[in-house]
Amino acid sequence: MQAGIVSTIPYLVALVAGIAFGWLSDRRLDAARIDRGGRRGYVLVAMIANLAILLVPLAHSLPLIIPLLALSLAGSACTLTANVALANDMLVEPKFAGLLFGLLGIGSNALGLFAPIATGFVAEFWGGFAAAFLLAGTITAAGIACVLFLVRRPIAASPSPQAA
Prior knowledge:
mainly alpha, 0% strand
């Protein structure tokens, strides 16, 4: 019973953090900063928090592992919140909102489906979960690089070949 209660702590922290982070980013950014992609900074902060997963293999006690998992899961929840908001902020033509959020949803769900499979393969191949945590951190670091270097302009539809 106690293990079940303790294991819910990181998820409860992530739940509260995701909502609070979204609320905070809405309150702290003005319209001009939002239009310039100012929420990108919130995405980066959340992704950096998610990197706490890299420290889990180094922790050897439950009182240290639980806060690290809580921080990482909170970072993940906040990343989702901030990424969806950033995509909305950067979208120029609202008529493409369904397509954009459909792509975000299917991408997130596909990666969510793939993650435990990859984790199992990595853990079995390398003989433990430390390599899986390293892989998760590496993927997060790659995501940070993408946010830093790829999210630069508003999302606009490309002109169709017939319009040219």
